Backbone:
């Protein structure tokens, strides 16, 4: 499962031989995964104008905006349930008394970008309608508000052609996603397009608890080209991301989201312009958000943030940024620019699962997995490596340079980007003692002797 050495060399050479290209939706966006904040995980339907504008100020005050966190995404809950007589969406006047264009203008004036939410069907997972039957009209309205990012949920899937719902058949579903994509393109305004497709779980391995259930993932019959042509990011998860490491009763948690990225898509479908999306972060919520979960430890949040970063997933904060100063250690984690640099690397390479204990097979479920090693080729002849300890005790996790695809005879220098310190020359491989539910996150610089 290691990164092929030849592929590693080609990836490094490509920096100087070939320019980066956008292969996703034809809007020029998403060359790197977006850095954003979303209202849903903490506020759910309780989002309002003050929260959004105060969050923008908090992103600036904490230093997160300077690192690139500039999208503010208003999830479900900002609309009235019914449209007006002309079929237009109606923003809730109690929550957003000045309207959405005012919010967009205010954010743009502060150097931020506006994101909003809709649904592929005629209803959403929160308060407000979906866009089915109004794709062109809604796209024009979003553009008139100055929207820069659109999240499109899929809360009305069906196995037939029920009124107000969209059939999950891969061909029918794709056509609907494409219709809304085209409507956005026709507005002339570049709008990042984030979608939440559905497919039926095969129930194999870590997907066992979800057999024959709908999960958030692109149908496997969609090719990489189809995916890249469709959207800037595509959600992949068995169930929503909750603020818990693992809930054995409900079979959800951060580790199941990791496993969905491994099993329910292919890592190499991610590329500049179109990213596998592991969903909104729960980092720093400590059980206080609106979504499920009693919270995690700082080490678990560190693992969560690190794995999302090396996956090349969008990093979408889901906490109340206004109160982050109450958790200085967790804020410091979010402000680690070296973690963000791995996620935002210009090469845009997909990650790889180098190894797993026990190895992936049809009988291994999420709680069975004790450790995983992920790697991602970076620009300037570097490789990022995450050693993830999922066990309940400290483990010594090892990986050879050969398994990382590094050619024999290469000189390798290591840096611990959690501790922000150089660790010197690495001769044969990496061996790290990793605490329970934690990571070691290294960046290796490779050169010829």
Residues:
């Amino acid at each position: 499962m290691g990164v092929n050495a030849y592929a590693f060399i080609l990836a490094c050479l490509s920096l100087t031989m070939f320019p980066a290209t956008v292969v996703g939706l034809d809007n020029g966006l998403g060359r790197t995964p977006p850095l954003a904040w979303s209202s849903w995980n903490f506020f759910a339907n309780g989002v309002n104008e003050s929260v959004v504008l105060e969050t923008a100020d908090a992103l600036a005050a904490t230093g997160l905006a300077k690192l690139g966190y500039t999208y503010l995404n208003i999830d479900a809950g900002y609309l009235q349930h019914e449209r007006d007589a002309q079929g237009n969406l109606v923003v809730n006047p109690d929550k957003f008394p000045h309207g959405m264009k005012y919010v967009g203008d205010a954010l743009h004036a502060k150097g931020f970008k506006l994101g909003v939410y809709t649904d592929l069907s005629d209803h959403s997972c929160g308060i407000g309608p979906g866009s089915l039957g109004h794709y062109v009209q809604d796209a024009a309205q979003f553009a008139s508000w100055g929207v820069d990012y659109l999240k499109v949920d899929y809360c009305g899937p069906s196995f037939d052609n029920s009124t107000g719902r969209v059939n999950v058949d891969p061909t029918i579903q794709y056509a609907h996603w494409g219709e809304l994509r085209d409507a956005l393109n026709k507005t002339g305004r570049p709008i990042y397009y984030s979608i939440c497709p559905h497919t039926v779980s095969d129930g194999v391995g870590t997907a066992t608890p979800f057999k024959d259930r709908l999960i958030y993932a692109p149908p496997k019959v969609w090719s990489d080209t189809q995916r890249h042509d469709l959207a800037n990011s595509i959600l992949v998860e068995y169930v929503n991301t909750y603020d818990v490491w693992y809930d054995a009763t409900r079979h959800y948690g951060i580790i199941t989201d990791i496993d969905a990225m491994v099993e329910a898509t292919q890592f190499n479908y991610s590329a500049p312009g179109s990213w596998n999306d592991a969903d909104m972060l729960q980092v720093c919520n400590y059980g206080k958000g609106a979504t499920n979960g009693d919270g995690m430890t700082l080490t678990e949040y560190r693992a969560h943030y690190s794995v999302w970063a090396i996956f090349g997933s969008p990093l979408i904060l889901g906490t109340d940024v206004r109160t982050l100063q109450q958790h200085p250690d967790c804020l410091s984690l979010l402000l680690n620019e070296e973690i963000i640099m791995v996620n935002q690397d210009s090469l845009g390479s997909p990650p790889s699962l180098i190894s797993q204990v026990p190895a992936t097979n049809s009988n291994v479920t999420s709680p069975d997995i004790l450790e995983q090693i992920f790697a991602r080729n970076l620009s300037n002849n570097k490789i990022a490596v995450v050693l993830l300890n999922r066990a309940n005790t400290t483990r010594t996790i090892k990986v050879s340079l050969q398994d990382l695809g590094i050619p024999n005879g290469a000189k390798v220098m290591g840096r611990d980007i959690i501790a922000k310190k150089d660790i010197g020359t690495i001769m044969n491989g990496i061996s790290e003692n990793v605490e329970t539910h934690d990571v070691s996150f290294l960046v290796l610089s490779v050169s010829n002797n």
Residues 170-186 form the longest helix (17 residues). Residues 1-24 have pLDDT under 50 and may be disordered.
